[in-house]
Amino acid sequence: MCEILKTEAITTDSLMITIALILYSLSLITQAGTAFFAFLLAKKSPSPFKWGWIFLGIGLFLMLGRRISPIASILETSHFNLLDSILSLLISTALLIGVIGIHRLMSRINSDNDLLIALSQIDPLTKCLSRTESLYKLSNEIKRSFRSKNHLSILEIDIDRFKLINDEHGHAIGDEVLCSLTRSIKNLLRVNDHLGRIGGEEFIVILPETNQESASIIAERIRKEIEQTTNFAQTSNRPVRLTISIGIATLIPIDSIYSIDSLGISLLKQADDAMYRAKNNGRNQIAL
Ligand SMILES: Nc1nc2c(ncn2[C@@H]2O[C@H](COP(=O)(O)OP(=O)(O)OP(=O)(O)O)[C@@H](O)[C@H]2O)c(=O)[nH]1
C-alpha cells in the first residue's frame, strides 16, 4: 500500500516537473521571439524609434537568463515551482502583446503623419499643390535656378469674373469648374513644371529652366485652350465657359544680395502685378 502511494507521488511529481518545464520553455521561446521581433522592428524603423527598439530588444534578451535559470534548476535538482512557471509564461506573453501593441500604435501614428503631410501639400479641392507646397517648391526651384544658371519663370493665373460663375451656376458648379480648369492646365504642362492653387480662383505655374519668351508661349497656349473649351462643368444643365488672365515673371539667376525667400516674394509680386495689368487691360490676356 505504502509502495503504491509512493509510486503515485513520484508519477505526480514527474508530471508536474514536465508541466513546469513546458511552461518555462514556452516562456523562454516567447521572450526570445519578442526580443527578435524588437530587433527586426529596429532594423525597419527610422532613427529616433530605432534606438528604442534596440534597447528593448537588448533588455528582453538579457532577461532570457530569468527564463533559462529555472529550467536549469529543475533539471539539476528536480525542484519546481508551478506558480512561478505559470507567471513566467504570463509575463513573456504580456511582453509580446505589449511589443505588438506598440508596433501597431506606431504604424498608425506614421500613417496618420503621412496623411497630414499629404494634406498640407495637396489642395483638397483641385488636388494640385497647396499654397504652402507651391511656395516651398518655388524656393527650391529658385535655388536650383542659381545652381544651374538657368532662367526660372512663373505664371499667376486668375479666372476672370469667377464671382459671376458662382452667382449664375452655384458654388458646387464653381468648385467643379476649378477642378476642370486644373486638369486642363495640367495637361498643357511638362512633368517638371508645378501647378498650385494659391488662392480661391488663383493658380501658380512654376516653370523651371524657362526664359521669358518660352513662358509667354506657354501662357498664351494655356489662355487659348481655356478660352476655346466649350464647357467646364459636365454636371451643369448649361455649359460653363470661362477666360483667364495670366501674369508672367522671370528670374534671371545673376548674383543677388537678396535671400531666396525675398526673391520668391519679389517674383510672386511681379507676377501678381502683371496679372492685374492683364485684368486692367480687359482680361482674357497675358501680361509681362
Ligand atoms: N466655387 C468656389 N468659389 C470660390 C472659391 N474660392 C473663391 N471663390 C469665389 O471666387 C470669387 C472671386 O471673386 P473676385 O475676387 O471678385 O474676382 P472675379 O469675380 O473672378 O473677378 P476678377 O478677378 O476681377 O476678374 C468669389 O466669388 C469667391 O467666392 C472656391 O473654392 N470655390
UniProtKB/TrEMBL annotation:
Protein name: diguanylate cyclase
Pfam families in alphabetical order: GGDEF
Catalytic activity: 2 GTP = 3',3'-c-di-GMP + 2 diphosphate
GO molecular function: diguanylate cyclase activity
GO cellular component, one term: plasma membrane
Residue stretches making up the GGDEF domain: 150-288
EC class: transferase
Gene Ontology BP annotations: cell adhesion involved in single-species biofilm formation; negative regulation of bacterial-type flagellum-dependent cell motility
Source domain of life: Bacteria
Transmembrane segments: 15-41, 53-74, 86-106
UniProt KW keywords: Membrane, Transmembrane, Transmembrane helix
EC number, UniProt record: 2.7.7.65
